[in-house]
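Weekly sync, protein design subgroup
Attendees: M.S., D.O., the rotation student, P.L. (late)

Item 1: inverse folding check
M.S. brought a backbone from last month's batch and wanted to see whether the design step gives back something sensible before we order anything. D.O. pointed out we never logged the input encoding, so this time it goes straight into the notes. Structure tokens as presented (390 positions):
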């Protein structure tokens, strides 16, 4: 039995995924397969580090020590073959607020910022709530996976005089791990038109062989000069509640601009437990992650094989990275609300594809970072939902 087979009760722990069901879906008697966090315990090394920090008994103001920076530097080199420098690192409570800070620091009110939907929907909020113009460069669904439409991107940059592109790499919700060739082409377009690039790489550690995540800023010093890379241990090790993330910003001028935004917000450090957990995870979490990736892959295969055999009306997009499975439900012929309600009525709360922007209509997102028994039960309930239409 795998450690990841353990079913851990999360209700009553203020977990958005479980305790937020009533607020978001209007009911609690469903399996929550929507929010992108794991139902797995964090690595023991992380738990031990947090306990050690807590047992000291004094919870005063903190600084992020060099040892934490060095753990991140080593992690990026070991897992992603990118040699970064600790001076490049900034810290924030999460990737989403870091996107907001980058938008505020590097663009002006009214400037166009481009995203590639269907994509993680908080991107939209961070652009629009900062008074910028949201512009879509829609991904193209071809042969069962997404590709970038760089010709359209270049047209949009020119027509809208865009100042920034926000990249999701690996892609959420589609699970694409962009290739070196794709990233090089994207970087060339941004360089040609003097556009900043913000790369949300929060799912970078969750790629599956033979696919390999590549940080776009690692491809050349030229790309690094206009790129802000966002990482966090939150998806990788299930540490979202610790609220600790990093920004990798090689260019000093860009770093200074973002630091000014942080200062305006009063943001200057991380919480004590976040620092302890992040450092322990990056320092000693390799073995746990390798086991988790293998287990998650098994869950993905369960979803795909079950759907292929028992729910032919659903088309499963197997993720190359992340633990999120993007399911094409358009053959059911239902509206997005009808789709969501159909699965809710059969006991499953899924991520509604429409909220991820143009191209997400008719899709549902399933989070499979949970015990295999939960995934199996989810698929059985989804089959009953589909069968109820016939």
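Designed sequence read out in the meeting:
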């Amino acid at each position: 039995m795998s450690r990841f087979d353990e079913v851990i009760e999360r209700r009553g722990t203020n977990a958005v995924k479980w305790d937020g069901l009533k607020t978001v879906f209007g009911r609690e008697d469903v399996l929550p397969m929507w929010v992108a966090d794991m139902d797995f315990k964090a690595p023991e090394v992380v738990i031990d580090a947090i306990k050690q920090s807590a047992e000291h008994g004094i919870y005063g103001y903190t600084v992020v020590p060099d040892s934490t920076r060095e753990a991140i530097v080593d992690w990026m080199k070991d897992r992603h073959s990118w040699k970064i420098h600790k001076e490049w690192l900034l810290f924030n409570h999460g990737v989403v607020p870091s996107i907001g800070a980058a938008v505020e620091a590097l663009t002006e009110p009214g400037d166009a910022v481009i995203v590639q939907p269907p994509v993680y929907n908080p991107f939209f909020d961070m652009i629009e709530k900062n008074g910028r113009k949201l512009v879509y460069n829609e991904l193209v669904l071809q042969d069962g996976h997404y590709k970038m439409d760089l010709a359209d991107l270049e047209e949009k940059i020119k027509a809208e005089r865009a100042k920034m592109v926000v990249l999701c790499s690996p892609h959420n919700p589609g699970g694409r791990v962009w290739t070196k060739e794709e990233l090089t082409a994207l970087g060339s377009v941004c360089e040609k038109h003097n556009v900043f690039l913000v790369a949300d790489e929060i799912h970078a550690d969750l790629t599956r062989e033979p696919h390999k995540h590549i940080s776009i800023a690692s491809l050349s010093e030229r790309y690094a000069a206009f790129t802000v890379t966002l990482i966090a241990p939150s998806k990788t090790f299930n540490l979202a509640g610790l609220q600790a993330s990093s920004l990798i910003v090689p260019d000093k001028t860009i770093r200074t601009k973002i630091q000014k935004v942080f200062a305006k917000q009063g943001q200057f450090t991380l919480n004590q437990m976040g620092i302890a957990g992040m450092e322990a995870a990056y320092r000693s979490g390799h073995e746990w992650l390798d086991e988790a990736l293998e287990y998650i892959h098994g869950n993905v295969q369960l979803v795909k094989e079950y759907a292929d055999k028992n729910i032919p009306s659903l088309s499963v997009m197997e993720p190359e990275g992340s633990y999120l499975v993007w399911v094409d439900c358009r053959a059911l012929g239902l509206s997005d609300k009808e789709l969501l309600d159909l699965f809710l009525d059969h006991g499953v709360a899924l991520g509604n594809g429409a909220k991820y922007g143009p191209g997400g209509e008719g899709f549902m997102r399933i989070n499979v970072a949970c015990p295999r028994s939960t995934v199996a039960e989810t698929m059985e309930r989804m089959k009953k939902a589909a069968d109820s239409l016939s």
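Discussion: Residues 58-283 form a domain with the Aspartate Aminotransferase; domain 2 fold (CATH 3.40.640.10). The first helix runs from residue 16 to 19.
Action: P.L. to compare against the previous round before Friday.
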